[in-house]
C-alpha cells in the first residue's frame, strides 16, 4: 500500500459505524415463577450472541423461513465487533491466481492435529461460499482489476489464503450481517444475557426447552434482576470465547463465552487445552494484536524496570542484530506463540523473552522511532541490508526501504497507525506498551459437522464451538464461524423444529431453573465478583499461560476445584441488580477455568507434550531452547507425543465432578468422490442432514 490513500478511505475502514437497533418486541405473556414476575418470549430458535457467527446463523435461518430471535449481552460487543490487528484476516480458499484445492486446504487447516478431518474439509469447501456471500452483502474485500481477491500469507499458512479489509475485517463482517438481519426483521434483544439453558426429558431423550436470560429492560419491582424466559426448542450458542479467563488478555472487556453455561446443561466440551497466545496491547487500554506489519516494520523492542532503566533484553536471547531483527519481523506471520519456535533461535523466543520481562515486573515497549539496537559483541548495527533472506526479500518487494520503522509501517499499512490514533495512542510519536496475551480459545463446545452438540436442540458456532485443533491458520476462526453458522442454520431448517414459535408450557422447568439461579446469588457471600475474577485470572495467566509444568497445573487445579466448591457452598455476592448477571457469569467462568485446568492436567499427566499455545516444561524434557549466553535449562520442555495428534480430550460435568475422556478425530476419506445421480436423492430428501435420533 502506498501512503497516498486519502484520509476518508482510511477513516471508513477504521471507524466503522454500526446500525441502530429497532424497538424490541414485547413478551407474549408473563408468569409468576419462583416468586418472580417473569416475562415470557417465544421463538422457534434463539441465537445467543450477535458476533459474526451468531448473526450469520440468524440471517441464514430467517432466509429459510425459520422463526429466530437474537439475544445478546451487548449488540456490538464481543471479539468480532471489537477486535483486530494490522490486517485482520479472513482465511478462505485462494480465489486469485490458479484457484485452490479444498482437500489440500483441509489438510493445512488440521495440520496441527487434534482436529476432526471432516470438519477441516467442511471449513475449506465452505469457505468460497462464505466469502462470496459476505461480498454480496457488501464486505469490501480487496480485489485486483480482474476480480481476483488480493491475498497474503499468515500464521500456519504456506499458500497465502489470507485476505483482509484492513484492521477491522470482523467488525465490517458484523456490520454487513447485522444490516441483513435487520433488513430481514430478525427480532433482537440487546443487553440480554443468557444465564441458564433449560432442558426437558432424561438420558438420551433430554433436549433443549428454552433459556433463562437476565435483561436490564425487564427489571422491575416484582422482578428486580430482570429474569426473562425464552421458550424455544432450539438454541444456537454463539457467545464467543472465554476472554475473561486470563488476566493477560487481548480480548475486549466482558467476553465470558458460554463454556460454563454449556457445562451446567450437560453439554460436552472438547480441546480445552488448546488456545492461542501472542503479542498485543492489553484490554486495560486498547486491546489489539500486534501482528503483521506492526512487527514487519521491525521496531525497537525494549523493557523498562521499576527504576525507569531501559533494557535491551532481546539482545540476551539472539546472537546477532540480524537474527534479532529477522525474528521480530517473523512475528508478523508467525504471530501465535509456538513452543518449537523457541528452538534454534526461532521467533517464539521473542514471546518467551517478553514473558520473562513482564513476569519480572518490567514493562515492555515497541518503539517505531528506533531501529533495533545492536546486539553487544556483534559489531554490525541494524541495517535493512543485513536481514535474513526471506525478510530482506519481503521488505524489498513491499518497497519498505525507509530508514525508520514508523516510515516503513506508514508505507506498508497506514491503517495500522490510524487505528491506534482513534484510541488516542500515537505510535508515530510514542512507544507502545504491549505484552504476551491470551487471544483465542481453539477448543469449546464439541459439535458435529452440522454444529450440533451432544444435547439435542443445542448447536454451537463461532468461537463457542471447539472446532479448531492445536493450531489454526490465521483467519480460520472467522471463516469457521461463517461456515458453521450457515451449516447449523441449514440443519435447523431441515429439522423443521424452528418454523414457528415454541408453544410448550415450560413453567415447571423454568421455575426450577430460576430457583437454582437465585440460590447461587447471595448478597451475604464472602465471594465477590472482584475476588473471583482476580483469583481465576491470576491463576490462569500464571499457571496456564505459554509456560506450564505438571506440578504448577496440578496445584492450580486443586485451587480451582476449591473455589468452585466454595461457590457451590456459599454462592456469589452481588450488590446492585446489574451485578447479579456478572455474578452468574463469574460462577460460569470459575467452572470453565476448572474445566480448562482439568483438561490440561489430564493431558500432561498422560505424557502430553508441548504443542500449540503451551510449552510443557520438564527437567527431563527432550527440547532445550538456547539464548545468546547458552541453554535456557529452566525452559527445557517436553516434545509433543505423536499419538496425541489423533485424539481430542472431552470434558463434561457430572453432578459436581468434571469427567474427562478422549475420543479419536473423525476421519475424512479423501478418495471418496461424489456422483451426481447417485447422491442427488440424499440431498433432495434431506438424508444428508442425518436427522435421526431425535436431533
Ligand atoms: C485481538 C484479536 C484479533 C483477532 N484476529 C483474528 C483474525 O485476524 N482472524 C480470525 O479469523 N480471527 C481473529 N480473532 C478471533 C476472532 O475475532 C473470533 O474468534 C471471532 O470474532 C468470534 O466470533 P463469534 O461470533 O464467535 O464471537 P464474538 O464476536 O465474541 O461474539 C460473541 C457475542 O455473544 C454475546 N454474548 C456473550 N455471552 C453471552 C450470553 N451469555 N448471552 C447473550 N449474549 C452473549 C456477546 O455480547 C457477543 O455479541 C481475533 C481475536 C482477537 C481477540
Care to describe what's here?
The model has no long low-confidence stretch (mean pLDDT 95). A hairpin with a 2-residue loop joins strand 23 (626-627) and strand 24 (630-631). This protein is 34% helix and 17% strand. It starts with 6 loop residues before the first helix and ends in an 11-residue tail after the last helix. By secondary structure, the protein is an alpha+beta fold. The strands form seven sheets. A six-stranded antiparallel sheet has the order 14-13-18-17-15-16. The protein is globular and about 80 Å long. The protein is built from 19 helices and 26 strands. The chain folds into three domains: 7-274 and 442-504, FAD/NAD(P)-binding domain, CATH 3.50.50.60; 278-416, no CATH class; 521-664, Methane Monooxygenase Hydroxylase, Chain G, domain 1 (Up-down Bundle). Helix 2 runs parallel beside helix 14 (476-495) and helix 16 (529-543) packs parallel to helix 18 (577-605). Residues 48-54, 71-74, 77-80, 83-85, 88-89, 170, 193-194, 238-241, 250-251, 255-256, 258, 280, 287-289, 439-440, 462-464, 474-478, 481 line the site of flavin-adenine dinucleotide (FAD).
Amino acid at each position: 500500500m502506498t501512503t497516498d490513500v486519502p484520509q476518508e478511505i482510511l477513516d471508513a475502514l477504521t471507524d466503522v459505524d454500526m446500525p441502530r437497533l429497532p424497538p424490541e418486541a414485547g413478551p407474549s405473556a408473563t408468569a409468576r415463577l419462583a416468586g418472580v414476575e417473569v416475562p415470557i418470549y417465544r421463538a422457534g430458535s434463539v441465537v445467543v450472541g450477535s458476533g459474526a457467527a451468531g448473526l450469520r446463523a440468524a440471517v441464514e435461518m430467517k432466509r429459510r423461513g425459520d422463526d429466530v430471535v437474537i439475544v445478546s449481552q451487548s449488540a456490538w460487543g464481543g471479539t468480532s465487533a471489537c477486535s483486530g490487528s494490522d490486517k485482520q484476516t479472513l482465511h478462505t480458499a485462494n480465489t486469485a491466481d490458479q484457484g485452490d484445492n479444498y482437500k489440500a486446504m483441509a489438510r493445512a487447516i488440521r495440520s496441527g492435529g487434534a482436529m476432526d478431518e471432516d470438519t477441516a474439509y467442511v471449513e475449506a469447501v465452505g469457505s468460497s461460499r462464505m466469502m462470496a456471500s459476505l461480498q454480496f452483502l457488501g464486505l469490501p474485500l480487496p480485489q485486483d482489476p480482474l476480480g481476483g481477491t488480493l491475498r497474503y500469507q499468515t500464521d500456519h499458512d504456506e499458500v497465502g489464503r489470507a485476505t483482509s479489509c484492513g484492521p477491522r475485517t470482523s467488525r465490517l463482517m458484523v456490520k454487513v450481517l447485522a444490516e441483513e438481519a435487520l433488513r430481514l426483521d430478525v427480532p433482537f434483544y440487546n443487553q440480554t444475557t443468557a444465564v441458564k439453558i433449560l432442558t426437558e426429558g432424561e438420558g438420551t431423550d433430554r433436549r433443549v426447552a428454552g433459556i433463562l436470560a437476565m435483561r436490564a429492560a425487564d427489571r422491575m419491582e416484582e422482578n428486580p434482576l430482570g429474569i426473562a424466559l425464552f421458550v424455544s426448542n432450539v438454541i444456537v450458542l454463539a457467545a464467543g470465547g472465554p476472554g475473561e479467563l486470563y488476566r493477560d488478555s487481548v480480548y475486549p472487556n466482558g467476553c465470558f463465552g458460554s463454556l460454563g453455561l454449556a457445562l451446567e446443561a450437560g453439554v460436552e466440551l472438547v480441546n480445552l487445552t488448546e488456545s492461542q497466545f501472542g503479542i498485543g496491547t492489553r484490554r486495560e487500554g486498547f486491546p489489539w494484536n500486534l501482528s503483521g506489519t506492526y512487527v514487519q516494520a521491525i521496531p525497537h523492542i525494549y523493557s523498562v524496570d521499576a527504576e525507569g532503566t531501559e533494557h535491551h533484553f532481546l539482545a540476551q536471547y539472539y546472537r546477532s542484530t540480524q537474527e534479532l531483527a529477522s525474528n521480530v519481523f517473523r512475528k508478523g506471520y508467525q504471530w501465535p506463540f509456538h513452543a518449537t519456535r523457541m528452538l534454534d533461535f526461532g521467533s517464539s523466543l521473542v514471546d518467551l523473552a517478553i514473558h520473562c520481562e513482564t513476569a519480572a515486573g518490567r514493562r515492555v515497549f515497541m518503539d517505531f522511532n528506533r531501529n533495533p539496537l545492536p546486539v553487544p559483541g556483534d559489531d554490525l548495527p541494524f541495517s535493512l541490508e543485513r536481514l535474513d533472506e526471506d525478510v530482506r526479500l519481503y521488505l524489498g518487494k513491499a518497497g519498505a526501504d525507509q530508514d525508520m520503522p514508523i516510515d516503513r509501517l506508514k508505507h506498508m499499512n497506514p491503517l495500522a497507525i490510524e487505528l491506534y490514533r482513534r484510541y488516542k495512542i500515537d505510535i508515530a510519536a510514542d512507544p507502545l506498551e504491549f505484552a504476551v496475551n491470551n487471544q483465542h480459545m481453539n477448543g469449546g463446545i464439541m459439535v458435529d459437522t452440522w454444529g450440533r452438540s451432544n444435547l439435542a436442540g443445542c448447536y454451537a458456532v463461532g468461537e463457542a464451538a471447539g472446532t479448531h485443533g492445536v493450531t489454526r491458520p490465521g483467519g480460520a476462526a472467522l471463516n469457521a464461524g461463517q461456515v458453521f453458522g450457515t451449516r447449523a442454520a441449514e440443519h435447523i431448517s431441515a429439522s423443521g423444529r424452528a418454523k414457528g414459535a415454541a408453544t410448550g408450557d415450560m413453567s415447571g422447568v423454568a421455575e426450577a431453573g430460576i430457583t437454582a439461579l437465585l440460590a447461587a446469588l447471595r448478597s451475604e457471600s464472602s465471594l465477590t465478583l472482584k475476588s473471583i475474577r482476580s483469583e481465576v485470572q491470576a491463576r490462569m495467566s500464571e499457571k496456564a499461560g505459554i509456560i506450564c509444568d505438571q506440578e504448577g497445573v496440578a496445584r492450580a487445579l486443586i485451587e480451582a476445584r476449591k473455589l468452585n466448591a466454595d461457590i457451590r457452598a456459599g454462592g456469589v455476592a452481588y450488590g446492585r441488580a446489574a451485578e447479579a448477571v456478572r455474578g452468574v457469569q463469574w460462577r460460569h467462568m470459575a467452572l470453565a477455568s476448572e474445566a480448562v485446568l482439568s483438561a490440561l492436567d489430564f493431558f500432561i499427566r498422560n505424557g502430553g507434550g508441548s504443542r500449540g499455545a503451551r510449552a510443557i516444561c520438564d527437567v527431563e524434557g527432550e527440547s532445550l531452547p538456547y539464548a545468546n549466553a547458552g541453554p535456557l535449562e529452566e525452559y527445557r520442555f517436553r516434545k509433543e507425543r505423536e499419538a496425541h495428534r489423533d485424539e481430542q480430550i472431552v470434558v463434561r460435568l457430572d453432578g459436581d465432578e468434571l469427567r474427562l475422556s478422549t475420543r479419536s478425530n473423525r476421519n475424512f476419506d479423501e478418495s471418496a468422490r461424489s456422483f451426481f445421480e447417485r447422491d442427488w436423492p440424499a440431498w433432495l430428501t434431506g438424508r444428508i442432514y442425518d436427522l435421526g435420533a431425535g436431533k
